[in-house]
Specification:
single chain; about 160 residues; 11 helices; about 0% strand
């Protein structure tokens, strides 16, 4: 099995922290992370993808005034990739996940197994819209692909260019 490669986002985060004149302790505090957790973000390229909860990544981007799309080298699905914006994308994430899963005739177990989760994770997402904030970005990308939803919709981030 080939190991997944991640862009050096950790280097961008560290460079931005230094540009702002912040210590690693201050940056960690702003992202609601311990110094050890924040240190790992700057040390490992895959950390923000596979370990850090979305909530903390958003806090980090906000505190350091970094655009998520630029930092993560992710094009906007709507203004850059030409995906048609659907009214459903304005639904709360819990309702959207449930609606798309049912439209694709998939059970919660099928989605859960395809994304690689145990227990009631999909049920929790369909019940509590904020539950996705505890997921890591890599898993949100996988869920978005499975449900055929642009990842930025499930990440609940808006493009600074088109506002979607």
């Amino acid at each position: 099995m080939e190991e997944k490669q991640y862009p050096p986002i950790n280097e961008k985060i560290k460079a931005r922290r230094l540009e702002l004149g912040l210590s690693d302790v201050e940056a960690g505090h702003q992202a609601r992370q311990s110094i050890y957790e924040y240190g790992d973000i700057e040390s490992y390229a895959d950390e923000v993808f596979v370990v850090v909860a979305l909530y903390h990544v958003k806090k980090l981007c906000s505190a350091q005034k970094m655009d998520f799309f630029t930092v993560f080298e992710t094009p906007c699905a709507f203004c850059e990739d030409g995906v048609t914006h659907m009214d459903d994308y304005w639904l709360r994430r819990d309702s959207l996940v449930r609606k798309k899963r049912k439209a694709l005739s998939l059970s919660t177990e099928e989605i859960r197994d395809s994304v690689g989760f145990y227990g009631t994770e999909i049920e929790l997402i369909e019940t509590y819209t904020a539950h996705l904030e505890s997921w890591v970005i890599e898993n949100i990308f996988e869920l978005a692909a499975q449900l055929q939803i642009p990842a930025q919709v499930l990440l609940d981030i808006q493009c600074p260019k088109c506002g979607r």
